[in-house]
Amino acid sequence: MTEITRDVVIVGAGAAGLTAANQLKKAGLSVAVLEARDRVGGRLWTDTIEGAMLEIGGQWVSPDQDALKETIAELGLETFDRYRDGDSVYVGPDGVAHRFTGEMFPVSPDTERIIAEVTERLDAMVAEIDPDRPWAHPRAAEWDTISWDAWLHQQTDDDEAIRNLAFPTGSAMLTKPTHAFSLLQSLLMAASAGSYSNLVDADFILDKRVVGGLQQVPLLLAERLGDDVYLGQAVRTLEYTDAGVTAIADRMTVRARRAVLALAPVLYHRISFVPPMPRLQHQMHQHLSMGFVIKVHAVYETPFWRAQGLSGTAFSPYEISHEAYDNTNHGDERGTLVGFVSDRLADDLFRVSAAERRERILTSLSHYYGPEAMNPVVYYESDWGSEEWTRGAYAASFDLGGLHRYGADLRTPVGPIRFACSDLAGAGYQHVDGAIRMGRLVAEQIIEEIHA
Which residues bind substrate (predicted)? Predict the structure, then answer.
């Protein structure tokens, strides 16, 4: 058993932990980053599957993600625009693929009017929300004790409007059934992106990608830390007093003045805390859970949809794959589509055989792109729900009523222990941008404390 002493021990080598470690090291503090996996990156993971480079985890960069954009530039990485020339496709309740351009789906005039009115209402509500303090809003308790689904049903009885309004924060982002989280949680999701309209706008949210994959961000950050990153070191016990911490991993022990837990809160319980965490944390962490989404990668000999005048962008609240995009890599002659299957639909698909699951998902994609979508040369499903050190996707959110009850305490230190990950972010919540922001924030706090 190796024993080392550092100023700060960081648990988790994702974007948050590695950002914090680099900031601390720049300030002259010694660090050790302990990572349970055999790789760095956390929910960022680029791999080659059957000869195709696939971004198995997070991949997109939005115009508002300043922390991520600064990091990408500072690391010398290049970005490229997501392909979006041509028509988008929408499948409505009639099961027919309708081509369209612009942001509004091709729905009836009445449904379009309702969607526009409720979107305007939501944008006004979101403008009042501080993403770092959503529980501080005067109506926080009221908005946190009604489900997103129930609130939408109060606005209209138009089912197609409800499905399309529910989609951006439900299936697309929180990846939970809309009855399982609150209106306030939905407003926070939108506020973290600047507005509800931003979440609806795929051209905004899914703007650019990094040449060679977004996992290069944590890989390059880890490279700078050199031997201070330890892989395959799951922290089993964290002993702490006001004087410092002792992190006990599988093959090493780190004594430090501070600890940063830079992993999803659903994993905190995998660590035995000595003494136990305070009652507040015990309760709070039980009200946070991961969403669930299957990210489907289908690679074809050519991007055949482009020849049909399609952008590759597709939506439907009635399809198994509720959204899909052209995900062709930079400079690649082959074409790649990425589709998403969320919450209960994802549950259901993992109850059938792998062959039937593939058939159902590709059939859904064929409803957007035609029969050619049925025959990819490479097919792969990102299943983060089966990852021991993640347990879902994209991030953790509170159950109904949990955000206003516990949100203010999410980042509260416990003795020498600090918390940082995208799940705890305000701006950039659930995104790499939020992870970087949280890594910077916690590093600043520790530097101030230690240098005080």
Answer: 340
